[in-house]
Amino acid sequence: MKNKKSFFSGLAVGIAVCAAGTGLVLTNACGKTQTSSSASAQAQETDDGDGNGELADISGDYDEIEDKLETINGVLDQYYLTDKDVSAETLEDGIYKGYVDALGDQYTVYYTPDEYSKLMESTSGEYSGIGAVMQQDKNTMSITILRVFDGSPAQEAGIEDGDVLTKVGGEDISGQDLQDVVSNIKGEEGTTVDLTVYRSSDEQYHDITVERRTIETPMVDSKMLDGNIGYIDIYEFEDTTADQFRTAYEDLSSQGMQGLIIDLRNNPGGLVDSATNILDQILPSDQLLVYTIDKNGSKEETYSEDDDQIDIPMVVLMNGNSASASEITAGCLQDYGKAKLIGTQSFGKGIVQYVLKLNDGSALKVTGAKYYSPNGRNIQGTGLTPDIEVEDDTSTDADEQLNAAQTEIQNEINGQ
């Protein structure tokens, strides 16, 4: 590795610039995006504490850090055996990622410029990929295909709901962060990606090649059930979700809908604004939807503005994979008695992240506040308790939770 002195001087300066850039963005509120980061990217649950911890200042230790990096680099130069080139950019990004990872907060993440670009793409509702929703187990970090979109390249290639992803491009992904894995699966339209999945139904590993295509992500699905009961399934809360919800609701209303089931099961969350926009469609104006309190005790409240409201019997379905923005939606409707919650205890993510773009195009996603339901509930680590608890019996083809929701709605329609 050449020019070690100048390289590591650059790294030390890079750390300082990174810190200064963050301060600038925060002060000027440039590039700040509020998000209730979806739980699908989780690795493990953390102790949320009281939010009064302190971050040490190491700005006076840069010379010592540079010396340590030079020592480590010398050892690697002498002993490390590798068959591939490792760029200075890769090493520098590793330092920044390691610095942020040391916080021990799985929701606070450093993104390279390329990773940040892909993150913003993922919330836009359109991207070039395979057309599947994935979720990472918070304990084992295994990644499961949660949902394959109809007509997607993933479906055409033979990937199925419930498949466990084990390799991407021939590389074992054990222990890798979901965001990194998804970034490697996405790519230029028309190219292919090789995936290996484990399928429990046949207890076999399957090597599958999928062609990447532009995916217009359906965030909402809807249909009319028996008894004029509308059903809207919300997959994730992204930029396009609120508009898709409105379209689905208006279509069902035109068919004579008398009751509504909103399905938030296996919805890992997404953008806070997307959730509040949907709540704004459901509740009358001037209703508190959610509020946040940051590390300085500053409170920010979000209220409904739309005069229109949905005034028919309503039920929300949820389960242990309903998290973040899903819990904001369900908790708000439960607080106002607007909808009963049916299913099982939700995930329990009651903190909000801010995505802060830095001057060089990289970004930090930072845990910045706790959120509270209108009645003042923070569900971090506990989740929402359903009004009617119904377990899903995976040994049957029946959907016991949906059946219970239909029964509850029909009883309300009939005035029971």
How are the secondary structure elements laid out?
Blueprint: H1 4-28, E1 32-35, H2 62-79, H3 88-101, E2 109-111, H4 113-122, E3 126-129, E4 132-136, E5 143-148, H5 153-157, E6 164-168, E7 171-172, H6 178-185, E8 192-199, E9 204-211, E10 213-216, E11 220-225, E12 229-234, H7 241-254, E13 259-263, H8 272-282, E14 288-294, E15 299-303, E16 314-318, H9 325-335, E17 340-343, E18 351-357, E19 363-372, E20 388-389, H10 400-413
Write up this protein.
α7 (241-254) packs parallel to α8. This protein has 10 helices and 20 strands. The radius of gyration is 23 Å and the shape is globular. 31% of the residues lie in helices and 25% in strands. Among the domains are: 126-216, PDZ domain (Pdz3 Domain, Roll), CATH 2.30.42.10; 220-413, Alpha-Beta Complex (2-enoyl-CoA Hydratase, Chain A, domain 1), CATH 3.90.226.10. It is of the alpha+beta class. The strands form 4 sheets. Strands 1, 2, 14, 15, 18 and 19 form a 6-stranded antiparallel β-sheet that branches. Strands 4, 5, 6, 7, 8 and 9 form a 6-stranded antiparallel β-sheet that branches. β8 and β9 (204-211) form a beta hairpin. It has helices at residues 4-28, 62-79, 88-101, 113-122, 153-157, 178-185, 241-254, 272-282, 325-335, 400-413; strands at 32-35, 109-111, 126-129, 132-136, 143-148, 164-168, 171-172, 192-199, 204-211, 213-216, 220-225, 229-234, 259-263, 288-294, 299-303, 314-318, 340-343, 351-357, 363-372, 388-389.
